[in-house]
Amino acid sequence: MGWIGSLGGAFAAILLFAAGMAICARPLVRVLFRKAVAVIETDPFPDNLWELVTLTRHISPQILIENSMRAQGGVMVKRPLGSPKKMPDFRKLTFLPCQLDRLPTPEDQAIETRTVIGPCAKKPLELEIPLLVSGMAFGLGISEQLKVALAKGSAMAGTATNGGEGPFLPEERKYADKLILQYSRAKWAKDPEILKQADMIEVHIGQGASAGTPSQVPAIHLKGRAMELMGLKPDDTAEILSRMPGIHRKQDWKKLIDRLRQLTGGVPIGMKMIPGCVEKDLEIAVAAGVDFITLDGAQAGTKGTPPILQDDFGLPAVIGLARAADYLEKKKKKDEISLIISGGLYTPGDFMKALAMGADAVALGSAVLFAASHDQGSQKTLPWEPPTQLVLYDGDQKEELNVDEGAKCVAHYLQSSVAEMKLAAIALGKSRLQDVDRTDLAARDPVTAAIARVPMI
Fold first, then answer.
1. How far is 209 from 206, CA to CA, in rounded Å?
2. pLDDT tens-digit readout, 260-311
3. In sequence order, what DSSP letters do the residues of 248-303 get, joined into one string?
4. Which architecture does CATH list for 90-452?
5. Are strands 93-95 and 131-133 parallel, antiparallel or unpaired?
6. Strand, helix or coil for residue 9
7. Can you point out the beta strands (E) in 16-157?
8. What is the pTM (predicted TM-score) of this model?
9. Domains of the chain by residue range
10. What are 99-143's pLDDT values in tens digits?
11. ∠ CA(166), CA(172), CA(176), 5° rounding?
């Protein structure tokens, strides 16, 4: 047992050394601290480091860093994952639980979670849950591995995934139970044989983090599968226009919607846009005969767009949804045209409140992206790389993503979220998630009450 004594002695020596260092360091730290405080208290401001504290009270560290990037490169800054600005959201709404006035739903009552998008379409999109995967572009944004994981995970959860603005990925169609294809302002993914494979078509007019702006990506940055599927040569540029080709007048939108509806045999055809001039935009969309409208709020994320578009354009999702629901109700179209909301919704509470305010479904982007990477992101990339390197098309470690594990985590995230929503429905005395409405809500401040048209606490 001599080794135990040796180990105990070594441990005691380490403790004595640490204690000695603490005793010796204490006076040194005190001296250095006092000198630093004295310098800050006596130096005039032009020479005083405290000036940095004053500066950050006027200009946030985020703006300071981004302005430094502008000064360094002289080119447009592109920020990932959306705006850091605090905007109105669903968190200042609260549910009013049933107790005596209304009774909670019996515990043995099944809670219906199904939703239908485009109920008047010849082939409505029927989903088991009111949560779906938002459009994330293969090549322009995320990797093939992640697209397949999202497709598999959405199928496991009984919902749909969205192809996004990138090229059509055959593997995504193979593994998705329900696939939404975007008809974008780019040249690719417009072939009739591709469009016929969609369970729903989303005409991409704009989105939360980029509005309706053009973008260009040199094909060299897309080398590999994405460049091939886009039909680009190495010296080409992948370009998304600011306007939809062929649309010059308001009446042209109806021609496009009718053509897509006929081509696809009657699947729901709708439009995706950032909330801006909500009522005027919806007037044109309704006149065009859409089956659904997707509103992507100003808080939406993206791989990278200029801060001005993320911070200074569009309305938050909660405002856009409230105005859109009001408009459709006023026009008596709420039962005919479905509403999908996205941008800045992350929790089951957010999702449930969106349904209460008139959404038929919630489209999730960043939330399912990070669910897919889950512990793989922390275990395989940190501390030297951010977890996004595991999921981006140009990520250094995209090959390391375990697709089946990612798919399972996506399904678990969606299923867990719906389980919470079902429990919330019981507390509200409902038997269907779609029966939750604004009468179940109250607001914590007058601004949110005005936005949502609900009473204030």
1. 9
2. 999 999 999 999 999 999 999 999 999 999 999 999 998 888 877 888 888 8
3. -STHHHHHHHHHHHHHHTS--EEEEE-SSSHHHHHHHHHHHT-SEEEEE-TT---S
4. Alpha-Beta Barrel (3.20)
5. unpaired
6. helix
7. 93-95, 115-117, 125-127, 131-133
8. 0.86
9. 2-58, 90-452
10. 998 999 999 999 999 999 999 999 999 999 999 999 999 988 889
11. 130
